[in-house]
Amino acid sequence: MDRVLPKRFWTTQRLAIFGGGVLVISLLAYTFLFADRRSKLNVEKDKITVSAVSTGPFEDFIAVTGVVQPLKTIRLDAIEGGYVTQKLVEGGNTVKQGEVLLKLENQSLKLSFLQSETEANRLVNDLQNTRQRIQIERFTLRKTLADVDAQISQAKDTYDRQEKLYKDKVVSEEDYLKAKRAYERLTAQRTIEIETQKYQEENAKFQIKQLEGTLQRTQRNVALWQQTLDNLVVKAPVSGQLSSIDVEVGSNINRGQNIGQIDDLNGFKMRVGIDEHYISRVFAGLKGSFEFNGKMHELEIKRVYPEVKSGRFEVDMTFVNGTPQGIKRGQSSPIQLELGKAAKATLIPVGGFFSDTGGNWVYVVDKSGKRAVKRQITLGRKNPEFYEVLDGLQPGEQVITSSYENFGDNEVLEF
């Protein structure tokens, strides 16, 4: 007989519906919990540069350009002003010390010199006249004293006779006193004449001393004016190359005006321009090197010019082992300037990525080599070849070092 079978709950249809639901829920859960939702961009690998992170000595140097200049340059300034009457040497020629370069004319200076010379001649004449007058006065006084002494001698004889006769009461008292007064007057006159001579002598010596002092000052003044006139002839202060002389015949030159310069050819140096970013790290004594005629030559900073112009400052570097043979003024050459000693570091090659990221992050290629992922990093010092990696990268990893300009804000690049 037929039996009634119990109705089953898990029918084929229900199992199919349940399995489908579980599958959909699993897919949704994976999408929300495990799927990579980062922004992606497909790039062509052959259009980017991938570089390896490495470990090695980081050489702290910068590449700069130096220009060969004379070791010493002497400015040629006009000591006195005037207009140019002759130009004897052109720029670019080699000159010897003391060689005449220019001749100037200045009528005002000539007139002042003549006036000073005339005054000196007048003082010389006055001094000679004063000395002659004093000599004549001395002769006159000697003659006067001789006359007075003769009169005194005669008056004394008369006085002595009158005194004797007066005592013998032969002459009157009046005749005696008259002879006495005559003798005493002449004696007093002689004393006055001697005092007068002494005064005149002292006064004459004072006048002569004054005239001699004034004459010396005037003669020094004449010598200075003569030297001033001599300065109208411009001569080379040192031997060397007259690199420039910016005047022409007929032009007017003011006192102190720069008219050119002379380069000392006994040695050369390199004038180097450096970015102001490094001004706190550059000082006298730093070394550098450059290649010339197939050889490396060592340089050393001797002077730092702290003045910053257009974002750059300058230094003078001298040749440690002597000036290279054949080097000439005006030549330029790249120089490797050392800022510190080499030290072991993690390195990443210099590339265009830095201008887009500021060195704060890079795209690192994963182990599969099929994509690169953005990663935060920290960079330190830089030289023309490498950046120093402080954090975020390990030696052996691959990093995109070319420009990121076309990658936008995507976090993953797929090749």
Automatic annotation (TrEMBL):
Domain called Multidrug resistance protein MdtA-like C-terminal permuted SH3: residue spans: 345-403
Keyword Transmembrane helix set for record: yes
Gene3D superfamilies associated with the record: 2.40.30.170, 2.40.420.20, 2.40.50.100, Helix hairpin bin
InterPro entries noted in UniProt: HH_CzcB-like, MdtA-like_C, RND_pump_MFP, UPF0194_transport
Keyword Transmembrane helix recorded: yes
GO function term, MF aspect, one: transmembrane transporter activity
Main location: other
SUPFAM superfamilies associated with the record: HlyD-like secretion proteins
Stated name of the protein: RND transporter
